[in-house]
């Protein structure tokens, strides 16, 4: 706790009362700007009040010129609206054949452009962005130019220009006035003009059309490769979704099925061993093959209870008969 009860000094503030030097106010170099009377405090404490002189208005340099441009914009808009309205009325009246509805519909686009222009100017004077309003001004101007084009003589370029240029030119002037007013208020340019976006869109459109024409020419000159390339482009641009994972089907091992065992037919029951051997020899894969007689005799002898030698002799006799008939290999 402070012992001298000087709480201002203890809290870091100047002691009270302050000296004359502490309260002295440096006199400004000139009168303050702004409407109304003004007073100036001297360093020695004198206070001078000028009751006969009004201070100058606080205005940014160039304000009068910007205001003049806005007034001229209003006059230009009024004149071009009259020109555009006449062409739009001709177009709508040719379709509807009704005077009052045609006049109302003809004035709609120009009235919309006027509304959006006032909104954009109001936002610009407040230093706010008016990007949407400026874009809608361009939309109304393009639609108005389209109606004027329908009323013009499309076979004459000069007629088309005379009908189409007024609304587009007015939209361009309005956009620049709004941009200048906003920059004048904010003292910096921080918003891109909507015409820059329109220009870039038109450039992209022209580039795309040129590319399409170039590929059409290539299709005429080389149809097979161009078609294959177009097919690859489409397939790469629109890939199919990947197939869903399916559970694997378990593999069940299946044992091989042996062929049915060959048995002697019932009519050989009680026949001789030689007859049975001849039957078995006809089923053997080496039938009528003299070079494989020994191997066949070795396989077939046990089936008819003969020795290998006897079976070989029987098979030799069978082959001799076959050779006599011309069927032996």
Structural overview:
The protein is mainly α and 329 residues long. Among the domains are: 23-58, no CATH class; 63-191, no CATH class; 269-325. Helix content is 61%, strand content 2%. The chain is built from 11 helices and 2 strands. The chain has a two-stranded antiparallel sheet. β1 and β2 form a beta hairpin. The longest helix has 34 residues, at 63-96. The chain is rod-shaped. The N and C termini lie far apart (136 Å). The model is unreliable at 51-57 (pLDDT under 50).
Features:
two-stranded antiparallel sheet; mainly alpha; 2% strand; rod-shaped; 329 residues; 2 strands
Rg, rounded, reads 55 Å
Q: pLDDT under 50 segments (min length 5)?
A: 51-57
Q: State the strand order across the main sheet.
A: 1-2
The oligomerization state is: single chain
Shape annotation:
rod-shaped
The total beta strand count reads 2
Give the N-to-C terminal Cα separation: 136 Å
Q: What order do the SSEs take from the amino end to the carboxyl end, as H and E?
A: HHEEHHHHHHHHH
Helix-strand makeup class: mainly alpha
Helix count, DSSP H or I runs of 4 or more residues? 11
Residue share in β-strands: under 5%
Mean pLDDT: 77
Question: Tell me about the biggest sheet?
Answer: 2 strands, antiparallel
Roughly how much helix do the residues carry, as a percent range? 55-70%
């Amino acid at each position: 706790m402070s012992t001298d009860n000087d709480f201002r000094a203890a809290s870091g503030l100047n002691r009270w009362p302050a000296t004359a030097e502490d309260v002295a106010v440096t006199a400004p170099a000139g009168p303050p700007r702004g409407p109304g009377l003004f007073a100036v405090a001297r360093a020695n404490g004198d206070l001078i009040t000028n009751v006969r002189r009004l201070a100058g208005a606080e205005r940014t340099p160039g304000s009068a010129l910007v205001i003049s441009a806005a007034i001229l914009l209003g006059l230009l808009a009024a004149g071009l609206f009259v020109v555009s309205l006449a062409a739009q009325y001709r177009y709508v009246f040719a379709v509807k054949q009704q005077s009052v509805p045609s006049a109302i519909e003809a004035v709609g686009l120009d009235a919309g452009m006027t509304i959006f222009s006032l909104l954009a100017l109001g936002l610009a004077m407040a230093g706010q962005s008016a990007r949407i309003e400026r874009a809608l001004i361009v939309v109304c101007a393009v639609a108005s130019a389209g109606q004027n084009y329908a009323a013009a003589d499309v076979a004459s370029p000069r007629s088309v220009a005379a009908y189409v240029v007024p609304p587009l030119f007015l939209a361009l002037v309005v956009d620049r006035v709004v941009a200048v007013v906003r920059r004048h208020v904010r003292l910096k340019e921080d918003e891109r003009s909507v015409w820059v976006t329109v220009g870039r869109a038109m450039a992209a459109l022209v580039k795309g059309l040129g590319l399409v024409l170039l590929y059409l020419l290539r299709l005429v000159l080389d149809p097979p490769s161009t078609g294959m390339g177009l097919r690859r482009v489409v397939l790469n641009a629109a890939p199919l979704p990947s197939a869903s994972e399916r559970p694997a089907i378990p593999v069940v091992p299946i044992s091989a099925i042996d062929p049915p065992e060959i048995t002697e037919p019932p009519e050989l029951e009680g026949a001789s061993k030689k007859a049975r051997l001849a039957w078995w020899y006809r089923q053997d894969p080496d039938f009528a093959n003299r070079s494989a007689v020994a191997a066949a005799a070795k396989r077939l002898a046990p089936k008819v209870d003969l020795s290998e030698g006897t079976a070989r002799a029987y098979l030799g006799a069978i082959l001799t008969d076959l050779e006599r008939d011309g069927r032996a290999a």
